[in-house]
Write a structure and sequence with these properties.
Order of helices and strands: EEEEEHEHEHE
Strand content: 25-35%
Structural class: alpha+beta
Radius of gyration: 16 Å
Oligomer: single chain
Shape: globular
Length: 174
């Protein structure tokens, strides 16, 4: 159970036991009905099928491996993610895929994902001029050498016209 104003909300997570700084999660409003949730890769990919006002959505929260992981592990991860998204494409579900991708737009991994799915990047849709602006808090990331956005929100093509405003709250904690 979450405290305060989120006490009626549902939090689904994967990979977070005692350490709250690792894993993925999805926070759902009381107005959202959970149909199913699946841990695709423990602590890395969580997939949740929900109903919102009668419309069915598949929401994925991803924490992609960074450059400290082996190329083999990263390749396997991206293959698993792509395969899962492909299975959702066959079901014609509205998709929202978000999280820490640990790669900027234009990287091989990012491009592979966008090119092999029906997903569009909300940053590109809402603010293409600032596509390469970092989503990282500068004072917290001196050791990270990635320029550009590594946190992404991707939506299936049937939701593209709904992506009107995407922004970074630099005052948020974390």
């Amino acid at each position: 159970t979450l405290p305060g104003r989120f006490s009626k909300w549902t939090f689904i997570n994967s990979g977070m036991n005692k350490k709250v700084s690792a894993g993925v999660g999805i926070l759902l409003s009381p107005k959202v009905e959970i149909i199913d949730s699946t841990e695709i890769v423990k602590g890395r990919i969580l997939s949740c099928k929900v109903s919102i006002c009668g419309y069915i959505f598949q929401i994925l929260s991803c924490y992609c491996p960074d450059e400290s992981y082996s190329d083999e592990y990263k390749s396997q991860f991206w293959e698993i993610l792509s395969k899962h998204l492909g299975s959702l494409d066959k079901k014609k579900l509205r998709k929202i895929v978000c999280g820490d991708f640990n790669c900027p737009p234009g990287s091989t991994e990012y491009q592979y994902l966008v090119d092999n799915s029906d997903l569009s990047d909300c940053w590109l849709l809402s603010d293409p001029a600032n596509l390469n602006t970092s989503t990282l808090k500068h004072e917290m990331t001196e050791d990270i050498k990635i320029s550009g956005k590594i946190d992404h929100i991707l939506v299936s093509h049937d939701l593209v016209d709904r992506a009107q405003r995407v922004m970074i709250d630099h005052d948020a904690d974390g």
